[in-house]
Hints:
Elements (H helix, E strand, L loop, with lengths): L9 H7 L4 E8 L2 E11 L2 E3 L4 E7 L1 E6 L2 E6 L3 E4 L5 E16 L5 E4 L2
Antiparallel strand pairs: 1-2, 2-8, 3-9, 4-7, 4-8, 5-6, 5-8
Amino acid sequence: MNVDPTKIQLADAAKQLKDRAELKVGEVEEMNVYLTAYLGEYPAHKHPKDEFFYVIQGQLELELAGDRVLLREGDCIPVKKGTVHKPSAKSRTLVLKVEPREFPFEMTGSQ
């Protein structure tokens, strides 16, 4: 059995992460795990596979199929494939995001 001894301190990684950027911090099976720094509004889009958000710091608002969901520190939410979503953050927000390695997105314009 191979053990990957790579350890990542998320707080240190977050200090180096620019706003509106993400850093791949791991892989689990066929999934990538990202530390993402959200700031501002992002375009509405959808994916052909599920995605998962966990808010580490700050607040992330998600427009999901016409509804608004406010995620605060410690909140998490799965976004099912095909669901139109639009993230936004009024201030820098750190999110741990899990998504498939091959993860295309389709811009949808407005919701």
